[in-house]
Amino acid sequence: MNDVSAALCLSLLVVLNIICLSTLVVIKRKRATLVTFQSLLVLVFWTSVPVSGVAHMINDDRGLGFYNLVDSLAGNVDFIRALLAATAGTIAICGTVSFMPSVSVTTGEVDGNLRALQVEQTNGTSLLLIGFGTMLLVPSVFSIIKIKTYAESTGMARVTLIEGGAAKYAFMSHWFAWAATFIAVGFICLPRLRGTWFRSAISLIAIASIAWSLSWSGGRSVLVIMTLPLIVVVAGVLKRKTWVVALPVGLVLAYLSARATSSRSEGYVNESAFSTLSLLDWQWGRFSMLGFGSRVVEDDGFLMGETLYAGLRTIPDAIAKLVLTEPVVTSARLSTAVTGEKLLGNADQRYIVPGLPAELYMNFGIVGVFVGLAFLSYLVTRAERQFTTATHVADRIFWSYLCVVLIFCTIPAHSAAILNYLVFSGAPVLVLPVLSKLYRWWRGQGSRSTNLALSSESEVSHASRIDFETNLSCPEEVLK
Asked: What's the pTM value of the predicted model, to 2 decimals?
């Protein structure tokens, strides 16, 4: 790539960065806060694509990334296509969230009205959360022990691939995060325990325990995915005092992320692989993978939904493996299988994650990137509205987790991650709203029966009083 082409490409990337930053400003002006799932979506896309593109161009550590656009023989063509795809994605996400109403996560403002979280004045909901969370402790702690034992026996500092029948323990270990979340929120919602510092301490203990349970994965994104629902729900309870929890929690998450990064670097010969530019370029960033998507299309043509179909099949295939003796065979490839095949020469090596924008490009080109990311922005906005308008804490936990999965399991991940985190890792979150609704229905039925009984007693008493008063007013009839 010559100097003129590089300057033009860098200029366009700077423009895309300005558009994303301006969108965050628009959200701030609409809601007087940046604490929204819409802003989080824009932030994740901004850092994953436009910022990643700039880092890829100025990063001197060539060869550390999985696909080098600048120095490759086809770099010019792939870079231009990656730029066009990044532009389409920026317009889709920033345009959608700019024209759709944003909602404040901390205050619950919807069109100027305050929809605060309703904390019931009874202990029933809190006991439901604490009881359900306690039930999850047994299988989740058992799974964590199994996974940690597996890691020690294989000598793996970070478990990225689990063979044999131990795979089920991976997602069951995630249930510990929900056990900690449910128990913490249950105590926070107790009517008699409403001190701000108490709630802050409970939240920090829960987050620290979640981090401990996820230490075997060595992941940073998974830590955010499993802790963010607790943080935003607690923020809805504290409202204007969110900083009491946000500040220490932010410091704890930053420390844990830095520790995870440090532990990862021990497995690399070149420590510069963990420089700031490399982090923005290819570890978190996904711009170069858009160029890889262009190369896949150039070599094999558009995949026409193959990887998306394979991502949808992960759930029924996993269930089939539990009940069938014969393995499920399918020709559809996951996007991680495509990256393993093309970049590593082995489709079974599935640790290179292309990101949803690159996956959409592999399947449907620039049009797919635009339509797919616009639809994703719409889904996040709708789920965010459901979260902020929900008045029951169980519903808020569910909608917050859905928003987090839609953001962190898409743009920096791939299509198969969405259902895996929703159905397997998030199974307790799917069950919780059902239990909450059953409890509210049972409580309503009990209240209705009590009211009917009191009403019947009142009518009988009223009728007796009328009879008595009528007899007193007609003594001659009584004498007869």
From this structure: 0.85
